[in-house]
Amino acid sequence: MTGTVLAPAPAAPEDTGAAEALRAVRRTRARRTRRAVALLALALLAALAVRVLLGRYTVTIPDFFAILAGEQIPGASFIVLQEKLPRAALGALAGTALGCSGALFRRVLRNPLASPDILGITYGAAAGAVAGTALWGLRGTAVSWTALAGALLAAALIATASVRLRGGGIVGERFLLAGIGVAALAQAVTAALLTRLALNSAQDAAVWTAGSLSAATWERITVLGACLLLAVPAAVAVHRALEPAELGPELAAGLGAHPGRSRALALGLGVLLAAAATAATGPLAFVALMSTPVATALTRGRTSILACALVGAVVVVVADSLGSDLLAGTQLPAGVVTGAVGAPVMLWLLVRQRRGGTA
Q1: What angle do CA 76, 78, 83 make, to 5 degrees?
Q2: Is-contact 153 145, C-beta < 8 A?
Q3: Contacts within 8 Å (CB) and 24+ apart, 295-300
């Protein structure tokens, strides 16, 4: 007896039309994202050019490239290579790290206020840095390592307080509450340690805890750059792997995703990126918080971690330019400028959340 091979039924016209419409929407979103990333990259280049070439000491473009080629121009070479360029490079790297960190926290915890600024990671780094100065007399790059340790300790305390006792996993709302509590504790520790410092050391620590790029060195840039070289590609991959989790745990499991494992990895990478940036520059207030809603607005609803990273870099470089060069008669740390801009953004996010909107 010969078997009969059945031909597959032709797709219904409405199914074909729906699939084509879905592909068209995806192509449109991809184009918007690429356009936003390209515009942000150009904005970052413009911000870096303004930071390096303009300000209290201006440098012409031919002189800048001559300095990079090794020519020694009295005064200009030192200012470009030891002040302007290191601060611009460190600001871009720190902003990139904070933007990526904010995007990861936001996607995992699904809350517009979920960022290392609010959750105590950066405050833990500040407490670690001040502890290194007050208790062990550390200076320079050594302080960055105690800041990194403080951020990781804060993250460990938050994770311990928010882990579900039965079944494992981290509870999102409990994570937020634990982070706010750890932030308050870290601020209290920082204030107590500052009282133990001598006047000059206390002033230096106060500038650092405000978030400043004044201590930018090529050593710090190299360390932070190496960290980003490893962490950012992993963050992009994990951020993309978490997309199915937004459809719900059952559908995500059906698509072969492992949201629990990806969430833990995303939180770990977010903590590492925020800790590395804060260890290099001090706590830059609200950069991670602002990056995701701004990037989402530019991409019209689709969260791109690359766009978040570029927004963070632009914000920090522009804030440093405003604080150090463009505000007449005063010099402010970059963290003060980002805090002044970020506070209204945080209030806007709170209002939108209360109204049931998404930001």
Answers
A1: 105
A2: no
A3: 295/36, 295/40, 295/99, 295/103, 296/359, 298/36, 298/39, 298/40, 299/29, 299/32, 299/33, 299/36, 300/29, 300/32
Spatial separation of the C-alpha atoms in residues 160 and 154, rounded to whole Å? 10
**How far does CA 301 lie from the centroid of its chain?**
19
Instruction: Tell me the one-letter amino acid at 275.
Output: A
Rg (CA), the chain: 23
Tokens of 144: 């960055």
Structure tokens at 182: 């750890």
Residue of 227, 279, 218, 186 lying closest to 100 (CA atoms): 227
CA distance linking residue 78 with residue 271, whole number of Å = 35
Q: What is the pTM of this model?
A: 0.86
Q: Which range is least confidently modeled, 111-115, 267-271, 287-291?
A: 111-115
Query: What's residue 227's pLDDT?
Result: 92
Q: Is the pLDDT of residue 50 over 90?
A: yes
Phi/psi of residue 357, nearest 5 degrees: -85, 175
